From TrEMBL:
The lineage of its organism: Eukaryota, Viridiplantae, Streptophyta, Embryophyta, Tracheophyta. GO terms for molecular function: RNA binding. Pfam families: PPR, PPR_2. It comes from Glycine max (Soybean). This is Pentacotripeptide-repeat region of PRORP domain-containing protein. PANTHER family: DYW DOMAIN-CONTAINING PROTEIN, PENTATRICOPEPTIDE REPEAT-CONTAINING PROTEIN.
Length: 358
């Protein structure tokens, strides 16, 4: 063995690959070192297919040393090619092992065809019900597969672990399928699976997209109970900074009769540089009216003038009502007179407001 092995690295080192290959074939016993040495030579000369063929031909077990060494040499393309070679030679279990080892080493293949190939191997090797293999495949599908196929795969896999649920909820939330994400979250809770910070962040994102204030509050309550409110991902999801979300919560507070919280949230909204809309202004003016808070109402009126929203009929009607309820009937009449177009709400607001002081 020593006689054959000693000159072998030097042959490869001097790029005498044909001589090295012949010498390798003549060796009565080969080992991992000689195999890796020859594979390195093939890799340096960009003959990746020969390295793959060598592995299949010699039937070496893909142990940690072999895997780590060749992974650095061949890169993702060749390793997915090696997986395909295993599959074509009916070595489905080896193909799965290689895929899982790639994951452990930090490689994250994102090609959908790779996912389908590995899924096929999992079925043929009877690993399709294995939780780890299923979770890895689901993650691959969520990143690059069709959502219908991803959903079908999820429904067929074991669901005792949190990760598959979180992956699927996140996929729905990122695809603007808020209803599906929220329904799946409810199913998960019914299955007694406990959510983590990633799950909460995804489902809160779905609440923001669907403008579901009540459900968002319930989930926020759960977040507080499990102590995840300080988590940065959950906090960002709770404060998804778009005008629809802010408006929804402000309107919700006003409808619940909590004008003070509505005004505080409006102040925070301005601090985040979110631009109010006519809905926002109308809601916070109603909040000021409910609190008989003249000063905040005046400040909001000033903002509507700067942004030209005072010309909007809905905002103007809220101004009339706010000033009337705060006892400033002259200001209420002035807002009424400045309206370009008055509707039934405008007349009712000024009449009701004025009647209180007759």
């Amino acid at each position: 063995m020593l006689l054959f092995y000693s000159p072998f690295p030097s042959c490869v080192g001097f790029e005498s690959l044909e001589d090295a290959s012949k010498l390798f074939d003549q060796m009565p016993l080969t080992n991992t070192v000689s195999f890796v040495t020859l594979a390195q030579g093939f890799s340096r000369s960009h003959q990746f297919h020969r390295a793959l063929h060598l592995l299949l031909k010699e039937g070496y077990e893909v142990n940690q040393f072999v895997f780590t060494t060749l992974l650095k040499l061949l890169g993702m393309v060749s390793w997915t090619g090696m997986m395909a070679c295993y599959a074509e030679n009916y070595c489905h279990e080896d193909s799965l092992l290689l895929f899982c080892q790639m994951r452990v080493m930090g490689f994250r293949p994102n090609n959908f065809e790779v996912g389908k190939s590995v899924h096929g191997c999992a079925l043929k090797a009877c690993y399709d019900r294995d939780l780890y293999v299923g979770t890895v495949l689901l993650e691959l599908l969520t990143k690059s597969g069709e959502i219908a196929e991803t959903q079908q795969f999820f429904e067929e896999m074991p669901k005792d672990d949190l990760i598959p649920w979180s992956l699927m909820i996140a996929r729905y939330a990122q695809s603007d399928k808020s209803r599906e994400a929220l329904e799946l979250f409810c199913r998960m809770r019914q299955s007694s699976v406990v959510p983590n910070n990633s799950t909460f962040a995804s489902v809160l994102q779905a609440c923001a997209s669907s403008v579901s204030l009540n459900l968002g509050k319930q989930i926020h309550s759960n977040v507080l109970k499990v102590g995840l409110d300080s988590n940065v991902f959950v906090s960002n999801a709770l404060m998804d900074k778009n005008e629809v979300t802010w408006n929804t919560i402000i309107v919700g507070y006003v409808q619940l009769g909590d004008g003070e919280k509505a005004l505080n949230l409006f102040s925070n909204m301005l601090g985040y540089d979110i631009h109010p809309t006519e809905v926002t202004y109308s809601s916070v003016l109603r909040a000021s009216a409910s609190l008989v808070a003249l000063e905040p109402g005046r400040q909001i009126h000033s903002l509507t003038i700067k942004t030209m929203y005072n010309k909007d009929s809905v905002v103007a009607n809220s101004l009339i009502d706010m000033y009337a309820k705060c006892g400033r009937i002259d200001d209420s009449r002035l807002a009424f007179d400045k309206m370009d177009k008055r509707d039934e709400v405008s007349w009712n607001a000024i009449i009701c407001g004025g009647s209180k002081f007759i």
